[in-house]
Amino acid sequence: MNEDDSKFPLLQQLRKWAEEGTLTLLYSAKDEESNQAVVLAELLRGMDLVEDTASK
Q: Is 37:26 a contact under the CB 8 Å cutoff?
């Protein structure tokens, strides 16, 4: 997340909504396995790992 740390609060908000319930990510690419929604979902899941590691 080095390119633009100003986006971090937005990612935190998305993560919070995901923890509260279902978070639906939409995409318009034809490729279901390689698109912006997949990348964003992986990034949000990775935030859990970073937060878990930071709390230890």
A: yes
Q: Is 11 exposed, middle or buried (0-12, 13-18, 19+ CB in 10 A)?
A: middle
Q: Which amino acid is at 32?
A: E
**pTM of the entire structure?**
0.68
d(CA 23, CA 17): 7
Contact criterion met (CB below 8 Å) for 27 and 41: no
Q: Per residue in 7-53, pLDDT tens?
A: 889 999 999 999 999 999 999 999 998 999 999 999 998 887 665 55
DSSP H stretches of helix in 1-56: 8-20, 36-54
